[in-house]
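Worked problem 6 (solution included).
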Amino acid sequence: MNVKRIFGVLLTLLGIGGLIYTAVLFANTSGNTHDVKLSIVYGILGIIFFIAGIGLVRTTKDES
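Solution. The predicted structure is:
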């Protein structure tokens, strides 16, 4: 397996974890400004990691 593809899978899993963590924070928020900012930061990082990981997996050719 290619190192780029493994890194892409790792980024994708980190992105999914970040998005799930954002959802949990959003569900448990009390409306404080700090909670909302934290949710936005984790959500944006999760989306970036997820998109980068999916793009890396899709564009890497499988060479055996």
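Discussion: The mean pLDDT is 89.
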